[in-house]
Amino acid sequence: QVNLVESGGGLVQAGGSLRLSCAASGSILGINAMGWYRQAPGKQRELVTSITRVGSTNYADSVKGRFTISRDNAKNTVYLQMNSLKPEDTAVYYCIADVVVRGGTVNYWGQGTQVTVSS
Length: 119
Description:
The chain is mainly β. Helices cover 0% and strands 61% of the residues. The protein has no helices and eleven strands.
């Protein structure tokens, strides 16, 4: 069993910053890519950013230059630094990890953390 626990969400004014964390624990042999999705009310879940085990990253156009993803492989943790936040960034943010377990790889999701940006 693998668990992903997120933290760091909250309420912030436009222009402010938040840092999300997501720690994986359990029967983990390794973790390949990790990433963050978000889902705003009435919208589909969308990919925000991802990072490979060796640190290659990609970002949605809407967050380029404002968000930064990073990871600590020793701690099985991924971070999302969000700067210059906008009201349209308001959503539930979910982390995802491609985890190597006995027998193969499985995608695990965090429980989600609410980010609300007020104008």
